[in-house]
Amino acid sequence: MDTITKPESAVLMEGLIKPEDFARFKETKGRTTEVLTALKRSKPKKNNKRKQGSKKKLTRREIAKLGIYAIPEDAVKYSACVPLNRLWRGYIARYLGKDTLPDVNDANYGHFVSDILKVDFHGAKISVVRSKNPSLVGAKGIVILDTKGTFKIVSKDDKIRTIPKNDSVFLVHWNDIELTVFGKHLNTRPAERSVKKYKVFGECDLD
């Protein structure tokens, strides 16, 4: 009498079934629907929770403590920043689409002022014309770092100076044009300023 062997598929299914479900598998004679139900029940559920200890971004305080944006006093020379200023002048001309200032009575003057406040000042040549700190008045140089609350500039004497925006009024030197900008209107990071909506103010005080 020939020996009846189990189909390979049945043997395979038996190997996939948990011991506690094996009796039920034998009772149903390995019918596919019952096998799939048992497999689905025995399949471990995925844990959708975020893994513990995932990396977090550094806070501003931690960045300051680590000195990531700190610039050593002797690291930057004025002569090395002159090409950067040349690039900035080309950038501002393309950004504004012109190299002249509109008249105050011009219909587009408000739009022009709004555009100026959105400019990235890295590479701009600026000078301080008014400040709550008298020692900063007259400081002039090329911007090497434009942060939320300060400009870091390098002057012709190769010294790096930090100028608080909120307490100062600046002249921006662009070719033969000198443009007055109130620092308190620039108290935002360049990337955030570029998408911010500004109201044009007739005057501004440092208080």
From TrEMBL:
Q: Where in the cell is it found?
A: Nucleus
Chief location of this protein?
A: nucleus
Q: Which GO terms describe its cellular component?
A: nucleus; ribonuclease MRP complex; ribonuclease P complex
Subunit details: Component of nuclear RNase P and RNase MRP ribonucleoproteins. RNase P consists of a catalytic RNA moiety and 10 different protein chains; POP1, POP4, POP5, POP7, RPP14, RPP21, RPP25, RPP30, RPP38 and RPP40. Within the RNase P complex, POP1, POP7 and RPP25 form the 'finger' subcomplex, POP5, RPP14, RPP40 and homodimeric RPP30 form the 'palm' subcomplex, and RPP21, POP4 and RPP38 form the 'wrist' subcomplex. All subunits of the RNase P complex interact with the catalytic RNA. Several subunits of RNase P are also part of the RNase MRP complex.
Q: What does this protein do?
A: Component of ribonuclease P, a ribonucleoprotein complex that generates mature tRNA molecules by cleaving their 5'-ends.
Single annotated GO MF: hydrolase activity
Q: What is the protein's given name? A: Ribonuclease P protein subunit p29
- Which SMART domains does the record match to this protein? POP4
Q: Which GO terms describe its biological process?
A: rRNA processing; tRNA 5'-leader removal
Name the segments for region: Disordered.
Answer: 34-58
The residue ranges flagged as biased composition, category Basic residues, are 40-58
Which UniProt keywords are listed?
Cytoplasm, Endonuclease, Hydrolase, Nuclease, tRNA processing
What family name appears in the similarity comment? Belongs to the eukaryotic/archaeal RNase P protein component 1 family.
Organism, as annotated: Culex pipiens
